[in-house]
Amino acid sequence: MHRISWNPYNEGEDLIAQAEKYKLDTGSYPERICADRIYITAKNRHFCTRNGIRLSGKRLGRPPKDPDVTTTHKQQLRSDQARRNEVEGVFGSGKRKYSLDLIKARLPAGAESSISMAFVVMCAEKVLRLLRLFFVVLFGWIYSFLMAWSAIRAPEGICKPAF
C-alpha cells in the first residue's frame, strides 16, 4: 500500500513515484511495468523511455509495416497482459477471500488498519504455502534417500525395513 486517499484522484500519477521507490529499494529501475491503461500517459511514457523501462501497452502512431515487428509486439503485449492478470487476480482474491470488499470501518484510521491487516494475512498465507511446499519436497527427498540407503545396506535374503 503506497497511497490511501478518501478523495478522488488519478492513480496514473503514482507510476513515477513507485518506479523511483523501486529504484531506491533495489538500486535499479524495473525492466518493465505492466500497467492498466490509466497509467499509460505521455508523461509516464516519457519517464519510462528516458530510464529504459518497458511500459506495456499499445504503441503510439501507425503500426509498423514489418509483420515480424508487429507479431513480436503482439506476443510481448500478450505476455505482459498475462502477468497483469496475475496481479489483478490477487486483488480479486483479496476481495473474495480476505473481505477487502466488506470493510465497513467508519473512521479512516480503522479502515486503513483493516486493509493493512488483510494484506499482512495475505502475505503470511503465501509464506506458509511456500514453507509447506519446501517441507513436502524436503521430506520426499529424505524418504527417497532412506529408501535407497536401506536397499544398499540390507543384505540379500533379509527383509528390508519399511519406511
Describe the fold and architecture:
The protein has 163 residues and is an all-alpha fold. It contains 4 helices and 2 strands; from the N terminus they run αβαβαα. A two-stranded parallel sheet has the order 1-2. The longest helix is centred in the last third of the chain and has 46 residues, at 108-153. The mean pLDDT is 83.
Characteristics of this structure?
single chain; mainly alpha; 2 strands
Structural class comes to: mainly alpha
**Rg computed from alpha carbons, rounded to a whole number of angstroms:** 25 Å
Helix proportion of residues, in percent?
55-70%
Which blocks of ≥5 consecutive residues have pLDDT under 50? none
Strand percent estimate: under 5%
Strand order of the largest sheet: 1-2
N-to-C SSE series? HEHEHH
Mean residue pLDDT: 83
Report the major sheet: 2 strands, parallel
Number of helical elements: 4
Distance between the termini: 48 Å
From the spread of the alpha carbons, the general shape counts as flat
Topology, element by element:
Elements: H1 15-26, E1 32-33, H2 42-50, E2 54-55, H3 67-97, H4 108-153
Give a short overview:
With 163 residues, this protein is mostly helical. It is 60% helix and 2% strand. It has helices spanning 15-26, 42-50, 67-97, 108-153; strands spanning 32-33, 54-55.
